[in-house]
Specification:
With 287 residues, the chain is an alpha+beta fold. 52% of the residues lie in helices and 18% in strands.
Length: 287
């Protein structure tokens, strides 16, 4: 026995529901691909249907996509700063505190040691409008070796996502209206399947839009901290410096001669063992 489905007072025939699904699919296909013939979004349905033939409940008027320009460019900014500091641990704590004071977050924090010195690498996220001031304040930690700030304009992606999200939301609203007016199980299943597909697409685009928004509003900055290296003082020029350098060169030469002699002695001994008997035999034959 087929389940009984409550029929609203103004139910649409199955054919009109199919046409409504087709027009909704065509509308979304045109928005996603820029082509007015995206009929593959609703395979198996007839094409060439005029919207003038639809009743008021199912007719799809020309969709008005939100074309209002974004108030400001959408730019993702990031920075890298390399600093030499007197105390790596203390400088790390200051970077963390400065990040917190700007309502930022620490994505990662690594401190490594080679046994004699410590090195730190910090990845922080701060509000985009405070990035320049944050980078400037880092100069107080020590000697800034290098600074790089990168910017990526994603305004086009944001506008495109906003438009596609708007069209999908309109499509979902219309599909829900068709769902409420379904007159058979077949129509209901078809509408629900299409509605599930559209909702999945909407969730995916919304997640992408949210991610871009977070990247634009919060800038990523990588801070590399390393200890200040002391430069060894060189010997003052003059007679004593020349004498010291000459003596060092003489010692190096003596060490080289001794090393070379030690290297050659085994070969000399082996050569003597082989060559001396040969020479003695030759001399004996001559006699």
């Amino acid at each position: 026995m087929k389940p009984k489905i409550a029929r609203p007072s103004k139910a649409l025939p199955s054919g009109l529901i199919a046409i409504g699904l087709l027009v909704t699919g065509l509308l979304l296909g045109a928005c996603g691909s820029g082509s007015p013939t995206a009929a593959e979004v609703a395979p198996g349905m007839a094409t060439g249907v005029s919207t003038d033939a639809l009743p008021a409940e199912a007719a799809v008027s020309e969709t008005k996509i939100n074309s209002d320009p974004i108030s400001s460019p959408q730019v993702i900014r990031s920075a890298y700063v390399d600093i030499r500091v007197a105390d790596v641990a203390d400088a790390t704590a200051q970077v963390v505190a400065a990040t917190a004071s700007r309502a930022g977050t620490i994505d990662s924090q690594n401190i490594n040691s080679d046994g004699t010195s410590s090195y730190a690498n910090i990845v922080a996220r701060v509000p985009a409008d405070t990035l320049d001031a944050f980078v400037a304040d880092l100069g107080d930690l020590g000697t800034v070796i290098s600074v790089s700030i990168n910017a990526q304009d994603v305004t086009t992606q944001v506008v495109d996502l906003d438009a596609r999200i708007g069209v999908l939301q309109t499509s979902i609203d219309r599909l829900k209206s068709l769902q409420a007016q379904a007159t058979s199980v077949t129509d209901l299943v078809a509408v629900e399947a299409e509605l599930a597909n559209r909702q999945g697409e909407l969730d995916s685009l919304t997640a992408q839009r949210s991610y871009l928004g977070q990247q634009v509003s919060m800038s990523t900055i990588t801070v590399s901290l390393s200890p200040i290296t002391e430069l060894t003082s060189s010997t003052a020029p003059g007679f004593l410096a020349g004498l010291q350098n000459g003596w060092s060169a003489f010692l190096a030469l003596v060490a080289f001669v001794i090393t070379s002699a030690g290297f050659l002695i085994p070969f000399v001994i082996i050569g003597a063992v082989i060559v001396v008997p040969v020479i003695l035999v030759v001399l004996k034959r001559k006699k």
